[in-house]
UniProtKB/TrEMBL annotation:
Keywords: Signal
Protein name: Por secretion system C-terminal sorting domain-containing protein
Signal in keyword set: yes
Native source organism of the sequence: Algoriphagus pacificus
Signal peptide residue numbers: 1-19
Length: 193
């Protein structure tokens, strides 16, 4: 009978610890947005310790918080660390939960990327121009004399993604000109032959 009572008590304690662990899981959330991590603890958590741990198990940061009746958001800026998976461990006096979150680099805005354009002389009087990776249609092409700086030909090409075009030069060699390109986003590129 004593053994049965001990077994029942051990089971009850194990079940209550499991239920408490589920409670902390319900009272906490962890979200990441690029290289920012937000840990939200809802009212009722009480005293807690938040730990950020890297992929190698190294503890990067510990922070103690006290949560009364209102939710608390604890932000972490991970910009000085490499993108990857991190573990967020939340510990109270009775419970512990862990979350795995992934951080990633924020993509570079298209307007900050260079204009992708290439040119080559096909022969003495012909230049070939290739432009790729356009987001919006519209590229202004100017062929300019290297000697005088005057525009000898100008056109606007409204291809949506990319284009390739040959230009025949009259009474000039390819090495006597250069091309200035400006796309719809204002990005520019100068090509010499």
């Amino acid at each position: 009978m004593k053994t049965l009572f001990t077994l029942a008590m051990a089971s009850a304690l194990s079940f209550s610890a499991l239920a408490a662990n589920e409670d902390l899981k319900e009272l906490s959330t962890v979200n990441s947005n690029y290289k920012k991590i937000n840990v939200t603890l809802k009212g009722g958590v009480g005293d807690a310790k938040i730990s950020i741990i890297d992929q190698n198990g190294k503890n990067l940061n510990n922070r103690k918080v006290h949560v009364k009746d209102e939710s608390v958001v604890v932000p972490y800026d991970m910009n000085n660390l490499p993108a990857g998976e991190y573990q967020v461990r939340i510990t109270t006096e009775d419970e512990e939960v862990s979350y795995t979150v992934a951080t990633m680099e924020k993509p570079i805005p298209v307007a900050d990327l260079p204009l992708m354009a290439y040119g080559k002389a096909k022969d003495n009087n012909t230049i070939n121009l290739s432009v790729i990776g356009l987001v919006e249609p519209g590229v202004e092409v100017k062929i300019i004399s290297s000697d005088s700086g005057k525009v000898i030909f100008e056109e606007k090409i409204d291809q949506p993604d990319a284009f390739k075009k040959d230009y025949k030069l009259k009474s000039m060699n390819a090495e006597d000109v250069y091309v200035e390109l400006t796309d719809a986003l204002g990005r520019t590129k100068t090509l010499f032959f």
